[in-house]
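So, is this right?
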Amino acid sequence: MAGNRPIDAQAAHRLLRMANLRGGIDLGGTKIQTVVVDAGGDVKGESRRPTPTTGGPAGVAAEMAAALGEAAEQAEVESAKLEGVGVGSPGDADEKTGVVANAKNLPGWEGSFPLAETLKEALGTEVRIGNDVQVATEAEFHLGAGREFKSLIGVFWGTGVGGGLVLDGKPWLGRGAAGEIGHMVVKRGGAKCPCGRRGCMEAYAGRSAMEAEARRQHEEGHKTDLFKLMEKHEKPRLTSGIWERALDHGDHLAENLIDRAIEALGTGIASAVNLIDPEAVIIGGGLGVRFGERYMEPLTKEMGKHLFLDERPPAVRVASLGDLGGAVGASLLFAR
């Protein structure tokens, strides 16, 4: 009888492989990175798309589903056959409800949006939501630059400045919003932050805030090639690559704003270290990965000015998982 036929060995292997595959989506202010990984965290498929600038949350969710579908196709699996899909999202990402609110680094994201439910309908599998930087921090802790440590702070320097915490080997979420290091005040009454408050670390170091300050100074007559380079390379924003090109060209405005960012980062990170005394700080994010090694000395020097125990500083490492770290970390939401 057909039902008694032995299962083909290759088919059995494929079914087992599919059962162990998970999806991960890293939702950023400028890009959506997706992966499909196996139980060991090895990437079997990936896709990357720009974050839509129109269409609001529904448009972003549709693009996320399409990108995950491309990664699944590359991994030769249907999205509905994945064990699940984890999402690392900016803003207030509620792990219990799957709702994302206050995602101010995402264009047109107003109010709350049921992201997990929307993606579940589109992908046909379970979806879990976590904070984007927290899941990326956990990826570095388990698989990347933080593997040798039991406690660390992840500082992801990109569109904004986000943070994640692992204490005594476990993620620390607080009441759900722990790790918002970018909104530690480094200068009372200082520069206005995209969050609406003043003096936050992100107001000086976040890419969006840095671009706004560069535009303001350029309009006042300060010379810079930042915007010429942006147009030449057909970029809608001042990406980390544009900042690097400007620095390599000796652009003084770019140099001054990066130095300003490093000062804010060093001050804020040191304050966080003084509070929880972790073994390590992992520097990630688009700007962090690109400039982490280049600016490691001035960053640690700035930190040293503010550390209470400056004779016993934490190790500072650049995130090692690269652009895929956030998406791989998101997939770990199904491995907790």
Observations:
- The longest strand covers residues 43-50.
